[in-house]
Amino acid sequence: MDAIITAGGTLKPTDPLFQLTGVDKKALIPLVGKPMIGWIIEAIQASGIVDNIVIVGLKPQDLAPDYPHLYFTDAAGDIIDNVFAGLDRLQTISPQVKNFLLVSSDIPLITPETIRGFVEECGVHDAEVYYAMVEEKLMESRFPISKRTYIPFKGGRYTGGDIFLMNSSAVRGNITLAKAATGARKNYLQQIRLIGWSFIFRFLLRRLTVHQAAIEVSAKANLDGRVIATKYAELGMDLDKPQHYDIIKAHLETRQTQKVNS
Description:
Blueprint: E1 2-6, H1 16-21, E2 30-31, E3 34-35, H2 36-46, E4 53-56, E5 70-73, H3 79-93, E6 99-104, H4 112-121, E7 129-135, H5 136-142, E8 151-153, E9 156-167, H6 168-172, H7 175-183, H8 188-195, H9 197-204, H10 210-220, E10 225-229, H11 242-261
Helix pairs in contact: 2-4
């Protein structure tokens, strides 16, 4: 298995995270002695289940020290364009790649256990796309002051995790829909047209569980997609605001202290 890390995000001078850190490339925000993406690279590589990693949006000189089996490609536009740029690069390295992990560069609390555990949660990998979501009670017990945004479903509220397990051929076959969905993400009427009124009504009335919702959206996209209600809250702890920076930095410092004392 291989992995793609999307790292093309940039911070404007007016962004509170830029004002806090002075760094314009979000993936390079310094955290306890290394750039944020360094924690993610090390977790993936130490998991023992990933061979090659493609970084989208950075240059080799952006990272030190050098990491083995690490490859780079330029950002290509929006998030969908970047995913396909990463997949293009990955397939030049590993032409027969079937399944790959897609990971955001802003979840630095993940560990090798997190990576292995999520892949195990996906089961026999017979679906085309797996997406992690974290239930509110779990997230709040692990990170009680993180103030995440939760989506209400029948049976619970969930926040998204920033990791996917994807089948490369399925991704290639859904470029048009992926671009349409991404372009419509801030257009409510366009979202309804893509998904359908029936889904919207049942979602708003909380008649769908998170897994039922995943099945219906996947059917609309003509692929087999499944939600993983993961037990790894770290997958939902992305760094978007200064308060998240403080929480994540404190957790990493504690982890480093425990490592030194063990």
